[in-house]
Each structure stands twice: as C-alpha cells, then as structure tokens.
C-alpha cells in the first residue's frame, strides 16, 4: 500500500517501508522496540484496542465474520485515520493511521459541549473485475463536508486530503471489505471541534478522523420494501437551520420519532416541512423519491434537506433512462397518490417503500421486479461494484 507521506518513515503500527511487520503491539503501546518513537501524538493513541494487536493490514480475508448476515451493526476494524488542525498550524497538515480504539477528548471540547461536529458516510466495494476496491464519488462527500464545515464554523480538509485519507483507511482495513455482493466497507469520516472551550464559540482545535466497519443492508427488512410513518409533531429541520448539512447535531433530536415509529413496526419516519406541515422532506437518514406515470419527483434541497450523493446520482440515472425528474416541493397529496415511492442513501442504497401511514391511513405502493426503483438500484450498484462500465467517472479506484 502507499506509504503515508514520506517513504522512509515507518508506518505508525510499526511496518517498515520495506514491508516487514515489526509488530503492531509495540507500535500500539508506543514502544517501538527502541527503534523509533511512536509517530502518533500520545493523546491520540488508542486507549482500548478492540482487536488482536497483530498487524493484519496486508491480509485479504476477514476473520470470523458471517458475511451473509452483516446488517448495519458496528464491527470494529483494525485502523482509523486521524488528522488534527490547530490554530497555530492554521490548517490540517498531515494525518496518520492509528489503531482503531477509544480516543481522548477534553470534557470541555467544542463537540461535547456544543455539538460542533460533522459526519460523512461512504462505501468501499470489492471490485468485480480484478483486485482492489472502488469508492463511489468520494469527492462529493469531501465537498459536502467542506460546505458543512463552513456552516458549523470549522476548518475542513481539502478534497485531496479527504480522499487520500479514505483510501488509506480502506487499505489498512482491507481484510474487512466484504466479498462481492455481500456488502461494503462503510467509511465514517468525522470532523469535530476537539479543542477545549468554555464560552460558546468555535473550538480552538479540530480533529478529522475516519473509521470503518463492514456492513450489509441498513434496514432489518434487508432488500425488502419498508413501511414508513409520516411524522407530524417532530421536525428534523427548519428554514435557516442545519438540515442541509450532515452535522451530528441533527440526529439525536429525531431519535424519539424514530424509536416511536419502530415500536409500532415502521422502519423509519418521513418528516414534513416545519412551516406548512404539508410537504414531505425526507427520512431520518435517506432521501425520498415519488414516481407517478413517467414522472419522478424528489424534494428540492433548499436548506432543510440533506443533499445526498445517492440522490444526485439517482436523479441523473433516471434522467438518462428517459424519465423526467423534478426537484420541487412534494406535497403529502403527491406522496399518497404516487405509484411508487423509494428512499436513497449510501447506507440504504435504493430502498423501495411498500406502505406509508399518514393520519392513521395506510397507503400502498408498487414494489418488486417491474419498478423504477429496482431498475435504478441495479444500475447504481452495478456501477458501484464494477459490474457495469462507469461511463460517468463516478468510481475511484483504491489499490
Ligand atoms: C446522509 C444522509 C442522506 C443520504 O446521503 P448520501 O450522500 O446519499 O448517503 C440523506 N438524508 C440524511 C438526513 C442524511 O443524513
């Protein structure tokens, strides 16, 4: 794999540039056998390694994983990527891989006290047409993080730094990339105000990190269609708020709606706009599309809706196959009179919706083989997994 930045340096877990494994444990404990000090600032050393400490970053096969029943649970992997930005340095400099594990934070860090943080989510797939892995439009995630960082008064990594970091994280954890067709390695970049601050203000220091986990399907329904509930009391976003950026502070406030819906057997809720309570926006972690006749509509991203990379890709793919796609207000009437409804997102892929419950009435939609969502799902995943030619230049090779 590509060495971090300077070819002569040993990797943080003690592998020499010649490729020999010195021993992850020594690197982990910061005792490189006297051969050199640990490259990580001590405060970022993982305090609790989750896995056996041997360096397995060159191994291909995953341990005892049941690849057929992955779901979206957290399977800890070997390495995470860490890059810091301090006021003195004036930007993100050089990041490093570290053993995956707990991190240390000041109790008065900006992220813990004021929620100054952003996350991202993207997947690495094992390539079908040869060795190596592919990422799907990682620059889009990088740009979205930059945009969100502006809103949250944080510095952000450059697109190049972001994509490089993602690639490093994949390569260090390659034994955790599921076999073709079984899922993907989900990458979770975080950007947090890690510096200590008491009064409400931007933190004096920031940390960008990425961890990884192998995942299968997001909903417990698997690939099957889901049932959604329209939420009328709790809103996820408001005009002028932060619904359009992936800030960590958007998600805990919707747990209540999500948990209540789950207890009634729904996979998730659909949020309505907070002003008129009449226009559907999206679900807790995915975007929404409605299909009627040959027309497809999805709520326009005007600040209250998260601009999904999958959403944007699906709009393009649907247009390519002759559908008219409108980004506009989608009323509750448009929704309940639709032929077909589906959700999109990195985690959920393209998930068909079989019913939506609104004010006690259950509305049904077409699902199955002969649907647009199925067609788009196949087209999208074929590109992502390298089964179809990527004419759009959306995939990025990692090898
Ligand atoms: C992440 C997210 C999405 C989907 O975005 P993708 O880039 O397609 O993964 C949609 N809605 C919300 C609220 C999200 O957090």
UniProtKB/TrEMBL annotation:
Q: What family does this belong to?
A: Belongs to the class-IV pyridoxal-phosphate-dependent aminotransferase family.
Q: Is the keyword Amino-acid biosynthesis assigned to this protein? A: yes
Q: Where is the composition biased (Acidic residues)?
A: 57-67
Q: Name one GO molecular function term.
A: L-valine-2-oxoglutarate transaminase activity
- Catalytic reaction list: L-isoleucine + 2-oxoglutarate = (S)-3-methyl-2-oxopentanoate + L-glutamate; L-leucine + 2-oxoglutarate = 4-methyl-2-oxopentanoate + L-glutamate; L-valine + 2-oxoglutarate = 3-methyl-2-oxobutanoate + L-glutamate
Residue numbers spanned by region Disordered:
38-67
Q: Name one GO cellular component term.
A: cytoplasm
Q: Which cofactor does it need?
A: pyridoxal 5'-phosphate
Indicate the enzyme's highest-level EC class: transferase
This chain's protein is named: Branched-chain-amino-acid aminotransferase
Q: Which domain of life is it from?
A: Eukaryota
Keywords from the UniProt entry = Amino-acid biosynthesis, Aminotransferase, Branched-chain amino acid biosynthesis, Pyridoxal phosphate, Transferase
**An individual GO BP term:** amino acid biosynthetic process
Q: Does Amino-acid biosynthesis show up as a keyword for this record?
A: yes
